[in-house]
Amino acid sequence: MKIVVLVKHVPDAAGDRSFSGDTTTDRAAVDGRLSELDEYAVEQALQVVEKAGEGEITFLTMGPEAASEALRKALSMGGDAGVHVVDDALHGSDAIATSLVLAAAVRRLEPDVVICGMASTDGTMSVVPAMLAERLGLTGLTLAASLTIEGNTVTIRRDSDEASTTITGSLPALISVTDQTGEARYPSFKGIMAAKKKPVETLTLADLGIDPAQVGLGAAWSAVDNIAKRPARQAGTIVTDEGDGGVKLADFLAAGKFI
Amino acid sequence: MDFVPNDEQRAIVETVRAFVETELYPHEDLVEQLDDVPKELAAEIQTKAINAGLYAANMPEELGGGGLNAVGVALAEREFGRASYALQMLVARPSNILQACTGDQIEEYLLPSIRGERHDCLAMTEPGAGSDVRSMTTKAERHGDDWIINGGKHFISHADVSDFVILFATTGVDETPRGPKKRISGFLVDMGLPGFEVRRGSSCVSHRGYHQCELLFDNVRIPGYKLLGEEGRGFDLMGDWLGATRLTVAATSVGRSQRVLETALSWAANRKQFGQPIGNFQGVGFQLADCEVAVDAADLLTLRAADRIDKGTYVDADAAKAKLFASETLAKVTDTAVQVFGGMGLMSETPIERWWRDARVERIWDGTSEIQRHIINRSQMKPLGA
Ligand SMILES: Cc1cc2nc3c(=O)[nH]c(=O)nc-3n(C[C@H](O)[C@H](O)[C@H](O)COP(=O)(O)OP(=O)(O)OC[C@H]3O[C@@H](n4cnc5c(N)ncnc54)[C@H](O)[C@@H]3O)c2cc1C
Asked: From CA A113, how far away is CA A119, in angstroms rounded?
């Protein structure tokens, strides 16, 4: 079984994230890391291979030079190889362009299964998985809270507030997984040392046959007009109960149009 | 000279830090209260560490260990050192000296220790023989193919949770031009043998939950193949394998210093008196600045010693300098942290008083600060013929 796992290098959510002058995410301002939500995808891919007793995992990322760190992290957890699409023209790409590029890169790898996180922790758009499935003509199974692959059949469970749905589909398939799938493993010392020996291929837009005009900030379907910092949190109101606490609370909620 | 950690080194730090913060920090208060690690918790942490591939970091990969070089081990130790000693020791690094195992010893002691099935402790110190290790009186005598051991050790760390001890004992006396000299040999001795008793020592101010013990040997008989290394070459064994262990004290002291300093800085930035964060008062700020310089210096000395082990240019004074400076830096940083926290620093509500107590032993075990200075001074005087 050939599995491709999509991994994204994102600014650490624990850092003080900001935007650059061109309103794109400032990727230099804070340390980057493998998106936590993608770690679940890595874990699921490793488990699928462990259960099947065979399989080959390639991690794919698109991003600037530093994004190779996300590949290294994934490779230290396991898997076999990495592919890094890096090209200056990609700067500022939106989800549509991202899915175009990733689709081209996935196509070259001819996988049976593509696994990705439910969203990236920076953009949190959650649309790339569906776009990719569409572009590649794969069975698209998104937001999996659990995942099993048996023979040619993929089964996922999707949990919502109202219901838990079990969905099956056939390979080749693309699956996006949620944090419900289970904790990602720590890289082992052996894994860390082995990661540097695993091959990582670097590809440009030209390698993928994509016209630079189709991607980047200029080709984006939406634009960010304006960015404002969230106002500092206001001090709260303390209601002291002097027998009329309930009334005061109701008044407060009514004044804020909560009730 | 490259001061920038490479990809693997950063990954080691990140991974151990994540493990320590997620799996160990949450249990620190409990261990502190109980002066013990509950058995189930100990087993759980050990299993997690083994499954995560973080066990036996110091052992070669061919043997099933982490396969890190000395710099890698120092970085891992530094991060482990941030956590409670009793907890981080559950992610065991079996004594390097076990790599001296030969023949049947490999299957019986070395490999099971790396797999986490058996646990070792190391016994040199005796009530009458501390810094002067060679003055030990515990002796092993040959009886046919066997050895018979008599005597006692004290201050032996985690012997209460170990399966066997790497024991040093005298096996005779050599006449030398400078007078009689005891021959010291290493042995592997299983707990529970007839005549071998392990007793918990008195409670210690540092590292609650991590106990030191007395070992009593009354005609304990072991077969000949339990001799570790050659008879009479115990000091060579210690020399060959324990330098790196001394560096462990340096690295863990650096890690703990970093955590304590981070905590003190955060307090200094948030605690306000006279309308300002106390860290803005020069009297406080300069102390914190001095701490950071010392911690960085200790870190660099430790990593330099480790790098020299990897490059084959290491001498004993390298680890001695690192151990001396890092353990004294930890003392300085923890004491400063108490001062910066004020009264709160002495209360068990904060971990500061614990770190302050824990710091004390680092200047004593694995060779006191004075003994480290002695090693460094010998390396200065010897080339001058003194
Ligand atoms: C909690 C704990 C755990 C330990 N775990 C182990 C263990 O697992 N295995 C083990 O074998 N040992 C262990 N030790 C023993 C430890 O290594 C010794 O305590 C240490 O080597 C010092 O020996 P001592 O305590 O007998 O002090 P002493 O040697 O009696 O020293 C007393 C003082 O005299 C100074 N001094 C001694 N000689 C000189 C000199 N030549 N020049 C200048 N000053 C000198 C010392 O620096 C010290 O300040 C442990 C100790 C403690 C406290």
From this structure: 18
Interface residue B49 vs chain A (CB under 8 A): no
Interhelix angle A95-109/A128-136, nearest 10 degrees:
50
Domains of chain A by start residue, with CATH = 2-219 (3.40.50.620)
The whole-angstrom separation of Cα B73 and Cα B66 is: 9
Q: How far apart are CA A154 and CA A139, in angstroms?
A: 9
Place of tokens 């490779």: A75
Q: In order of start, what are the domains of chain B with their CATH numbers?
A: 7-93 (1.10.540.10), 120-232 (2.40.110.10), 236-384 (1.20.140.10)
Q: What separation in angstroms does the CA of B149 have from each of A150, B142, B160, B222, B305?
A: 61, 9, 19, 8, 37
Nearest alpha carbon, ligand 1 atom 6: B156
ipTM: 0.85
Which residue of A34, A71, A75, A192 is the best one to mutate when testing the B interface, meaning the one whose CB has the most B CBs within 10 A?
A192
Q: Contact B261/B294 with Cβ under 8 angstroms?
A: no
Distance from residue B131's CA to the centre of ligand 1 (Å): 5
Which phi and psi angles does B123 have, rounded to 5°?
-125, 110
CB contact under 8 A, A186 and B52: yes
Rounded to 10°, the helix B282-311/B243-270 angle is: 160
Per-residue pLDDT of chain B (386 residues; tens, 9 = 90+): 889 999 999 999 999 999 999 999 999 999 999 999 999 999 999 999 999 999 999 999 999 999 999 999 999 999 999 999 999 999 999 999 999 999 999 999 999 999 999 999 999 999 999 999 999 999 999 999 999 999 999 999 999 999 999 999 999 999 999 999 999 999 999 999 999 999 999 999 999 999 999 999 999 999 999 999 999 999 999 998 888 888 999 999 999 999 999 999 999 999 999 999 999 999 999 999 999 999 999 999 999 999 999 999 999 999 999 999 999 999 999 999 999 999 999 999 999 999 999 999 999 999 999 999 999 999 999 999 98
Could you tell me which of B368, B317, B359, B319 has the C-alpha nearest to residue B130? B368
Q: What kind and span of H or E run contains B152?
A: strand B146-157
pTM of this structure? 0.89
Q: Which residues contact B360 (CB under 8 A, 6 or more apart)?
A: B205, B206, B331
Alpha helices in B4-132 (DSSP H): 7-19, 28-34, 39-51, 70-80, 85-88, 104-105, 111-115
Distance B317 CA to ligand 1 centre (A): 18
* Distance separating alpha carbons of residues B240 and B350, to the nearest angstrom: 41
Which ranges of chain B does DSSP label H, i.e. alpha helix? 7-19, 28-34, 39-51, 70-80, 85-88, 104-105, 111-115, 234-241, 243-270, 282-311, 316-341, 352-360, 369-381
Residue with the two structure tokens 């030079």: A65
Sign of CA dihedral B207, B208, B209, B210: positive
| Neighbouring C-beta atoms of residue A40, cutoff 10 Å | 25
Report d(CA B28, CA B34) in Å as an integer: 10
